Inverse folding.
């Protein structure tokens, strides 16, 4: 995104939607790999980056190239970073943890061509994304073009029924789930008819990432939430493969594929955490304890005629 901004090849609002809305989470995801006491420096750096974006936004507003609401948009993200920094410092103060020497850092290799980059590995190879097939569509001018359509879609888990006296929050949450799933179905329909725009990618990815998590929270039994988190990973994998095909064909920018991979990996992290909470820890079976066989001590010098003679010679 920094390269896109530098060469000026993106519209103002699209740049802000992708850069300023999504930039903070990857920065903090890298920082969270360290121990809590070592994260302060990274969180402070994130706040500094967001403050620099505020300055750039203010310059755009002064020059008339950005609306005034843009500053409120970026300031909201900066305040979120500051709130998380304050929470982290409070956690460290309570635990009394001390920073440790940093380990070896790994550099990100950007040498492969962007349109030939492989997708990152998955922790759940058994969760397959929907397959795609190319479909020919005839335009209004008589020309034909191909679009990617999902096939062999796995049905989603069934939502529980609401009882008569359900609480208002459960009613609202159920309505939210239905609207999110309807948005995904409508988006797939627009993709299949060739009327979907890449400018709607951020909204599509955001709703697909959130709606399955909300549906999982709707379940009362923690075990039933696994099905929704697995459906979330499959859906995000489908979006990731869809974006990989578009980047390969030159109809989508490479950074959108990076965004799709980042969100998919976060979905797998959430699924791993849920599995660790739901599934009991299986302890190895201990070897059975055998009671020792009692063996009386040998009589070295037995006393004669302890028992009467039972048999005559």
């Amino acid at each position: 995104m920094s390269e896109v901004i530098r060469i000026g090849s993106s519209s103002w609002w699209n740049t802000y939607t992708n850069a300023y809305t999504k930039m903070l989470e990857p920065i903090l995801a890298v920082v969270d790999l360290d121990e809590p006491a070592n994260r302060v420096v990274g969180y402070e750096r994130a706040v500094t980056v967001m403050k620099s974006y505020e300055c750039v936004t203010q310059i755009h507003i002064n020059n008339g190239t950005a609306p005034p609401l843009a500053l409120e948009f970026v300031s909201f993200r900066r305040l979120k970073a500051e709130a998380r920094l304050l929470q982290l410092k409070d956690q460290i103060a309570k635990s009394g943890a001390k920073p440790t020497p940093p380990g070896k850092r790994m550099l990100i290799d950007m040498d492969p061509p962007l349109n030939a980059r492989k997708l990152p590995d998955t922790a759940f190879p058994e969760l397959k994304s929907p397959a795609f097939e190319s479909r020919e569509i005839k335009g209004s001018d008589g020309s034909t073009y191909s679009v990617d359509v999902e096939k062999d879609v796995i049905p989603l888990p069934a939502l529980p029924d609401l009882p008569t006296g359900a609480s208002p929050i459960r009613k609202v949450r159920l309505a939210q789930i239905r609207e999110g799933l309807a948005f995904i179905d409508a988006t797939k329909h627009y993709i299949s008819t060739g009327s979907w725009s890449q400018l709607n990618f951020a909204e599509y990815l955001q709703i697909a990432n959130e709606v399955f998590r909300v549906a999982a929270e709707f379940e009362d039994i923690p075990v039933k939430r696994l099905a929704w988190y697995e459906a979330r990973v499959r859906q995000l994998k489908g979006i990731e493969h869809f974006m990989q095909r578009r980047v390969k064909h030159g109809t989508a920018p490479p950074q959108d594929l990076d965004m799709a991979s980042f969100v998919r990996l976060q979905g797998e992290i959430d699924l791993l955490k849920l599995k660790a909470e739901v599934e009991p820890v299986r302890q190895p079976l201990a070897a059975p304890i055998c009671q020792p066989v009692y063996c009386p001590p040998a009589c070295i010098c037995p006393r004669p005629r302890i028992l009467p003679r039972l048999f005559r010679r």
The first helix runs from residue 2 to 7. The chain has nine helices and two strands. Residues 2-95 form one domain.
